[in-house]
Amino acid sequence: MNYYLTAIEGMPKLLECADGALGDFRKARYKDAFQRIYLENQPVLEALEQGYLMVIDKDQYLTNMAEALADSASARMEACKRRGAKDRVLMDLNLAMAVYVLPMILEYKGQSSKLLADKAVDAWKARFPKTNLQAAEFTYIEQGFHKKYCYITTAVCEVLGRPDDCYELNLLRDYRDTYLSSLPDGETLIRKYYDVAPSIVKHIDQSGCPEKVYQDIWQNYLKPCIRMIEDGESENCCRLYEDMVADLEKKYFLRNSGV
Q1: For the chain, how long is the longest CA-to-CA vector?
Q2: pTM, entire model
Q3: Domain boundary among 109, 142, 175
Q4: Structural domain tally of the chain?
Q5: Do 15 and 138 have their domain in common?
Q6: Residue 154 and residue 71 share a domain
Q7: Per-residue pLDDT tens for 16-29?
Q8: Helices (H) and strands (E) in the chain — how many of each?
Q9: Are 96 and 38 within one domain?
């Protein structure tokens, strides 16, 4: 069996399967969807590991595999003629990589798995410098559904000394999962938040004064949002929510990504 050929031809298929399963990235369906496509792609993952164990230049082998993923994504991007469509495709590809492809690679737990995931992240960032992809294991992502990925709000509440199941967090999570997700562009906003929020929190934590930053976020965005939700002003809360994501992205994501 030609493990190298099976592996490098299978890398784009990993991304295709992941992209096709984005509709299942929901609390009730993610676990089953991940397990399904993980089993479907088991032969590729096995070929990746066996090829790595047999090849002499292991570093170049992993680089080639990582580049095959990035090449596949670039081809998808080049097929889009409109800028808006490209942005949406890239957002979907980022999510597919983050919640399916990289977790599948790590789930295999071979000698090559962690090294390949790191190579894939590096190749992706080099090809798409405006993104800030990070690798996470399936269990971490699946458990995150219990927090529903309120990265920024969770960080703020931790600074304020509030528990993970506090009133404020539960209210904002419910707002996002009901009102926000029901809007025509709600899923797009949530996906964008998922793409940038972990890096925003990371850069805030490294800013030298994270407590002050989180206090400002609370006063300027989250506290007013909570009041608006309580007063039935869901639309106003949505606009402020969008402002928060845009402002924090500009200050703590784009600036630190060299854009």
Answers
A1: 65
A2: 0.63
A3: 142
A4: 2
A5: yes
A6: no
A7: 998 888 878 776 78
A8: 15, 0
A9: yes
Pick the last residue of a domain from 105, 120, 142. 142
Long-range contacts of 143-146 (CB under 8 A, 24+ apart): 145/27, 145/30
| Tens-digit pLDDT profile for residues 173-231 | 888 878 887 888 877 777 777 667 767 887 787 777 888 888 999 999 999 999 999 99
Tokens coding 221: 């965005």
Residues 181 and 87 in one domain: no
DSSP for 135-156, please give it: ---HHHHHHHTTTTT-HHHHHH
- Residue 76 corresponds to which tokens in the numbers above? 């998808």
**Model pLDDT for residues 101-154, shown as the tens digit of each residue:** 999 999 999 999 999 999 999 999 999 887 767 788 888 777 665 444 566 787
214: containing domain: 147-257
How many Å apart are CA 99 and CA 17, to the nearest integer?
12
CB 185 within 8 A of CB 179: no
